[in-house]
């Protein structure tokens, strides 16, 4: 009798242990998106890039003008340097060296600003995409949404790809 009761308790424990998780298991709905495709095809991203490009081009013009001026000084030194008085040639050489230093400094500043703009673009676009993904997840009851390359996904069915939905809402 004790053996029967013990066997019944073990059976009941095992049944409960294995059966209850199935009762409460939630249906798992997965989604996948391709960030690279979004970055390539989104009009919003293209507009952000266009704005950044315009800002950079405005700052690149003074550099180009200084570069032209430095080239003119160098040409004058090559052409007339040997015929110039020593002090004039020395002053022109110093001016050329200072212009080159200034150009380098301006290029470094522009490179730093370009990196800053790129980070700003990434931050803004990722925040916007994150809002869209959360919206899609809530509206369509997704359990988990993965980014294709970051998650290391080697294969998935197109039915779980929500990249198109993100692109639609991003435009």
Write a structural description.
With 171 residues, the chain is mainly alpha-helical. The protein has one domain: 2-Layer Sandwich (Protein Binding, DinI Protein, Chain A). It has helices at 2-24, 35-41, 43-80, 86-140, 163-170, and strands spanning 30-33, 144-147. A two-stranded parallel ribbon has the order 1-2. The chain starts with a helix and ends with a helix.
Brief sketch in words of this structure:
The chain has helices at 2-24, 35-41, 43-80, 86-140, 163-170, and strands at 30-33, 144-147. With 171 residues, the protein is mostly helical.
Contiguous uncertain segments of 5+ residues: none
The number of E-state strands comes to: 2
Distance between the termini: 73 Å
- The number of helical segments is 5
Biggest sheet: strands, sense, closure? 2 strands, parallel
Q: Report the helical percentage.
A: over 70%
Question: What fold name goes in the CATH topology slot?
Answer: Protein Binding, DinI Protein, Chain A
The CATH C-level name is Alpha Beta
**Helix/strand structural class:** mainly alpha
Number of structurally distinct domains: 1
CATH architecture, by name, is 2-Layer Sandwich
- Oligomer state equals single chain
Please name the fourth-level CATH homologous superfamily. Skp domain
Q: Provide mean pLDDT, rounded.
A: 82
Could you tell me the strand content as a percent range? under 5%
How many whole angstroms does the radius of gyration measure?
33 Å
Instruction: Give, in spatial order, the strands making up the sheet with the most strands.
Output: 1-2
The outline comes out as elongated
Q: Give the helices and strands as they follow along the chain.
A: HEHHHEH
């Amino acid at each position: 009798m004790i053996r029967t009761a013990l066997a019944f308790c073990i059976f009941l424990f095992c049944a409960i242990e294995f059966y209850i998780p199935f009762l409460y298991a939630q249906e798992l709905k997965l989604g996948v998106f391709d960030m690279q495709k979004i970055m390539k095809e989104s009009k919003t991203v293209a507009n952000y890039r266009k704005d950044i490009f315009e800002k950079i081009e405005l700052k690149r013009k003074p550099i180009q003008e200084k570069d032209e001026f430095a080239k003119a000084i160098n040409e004058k030194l090559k052409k007339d340097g040997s015929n110039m008085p020593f002090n004039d040639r020395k002053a022109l050489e110093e001016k050329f060296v200072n212009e080159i230093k200034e150009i380098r400094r301006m290029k470094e500043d522009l490179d730093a600003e370009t990196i800053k703009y790129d980070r700003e673009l990434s931050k803004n676009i990722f925040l916007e995409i994150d809002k869209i993904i959360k919206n899609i997840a809530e509206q369509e009851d997704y359990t988990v949404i993965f980014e294709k390359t970051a998650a290391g996904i080697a294969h998935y069915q197109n039915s779980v790809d929500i990249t198109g939905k993100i692109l639609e809402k991003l435009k």
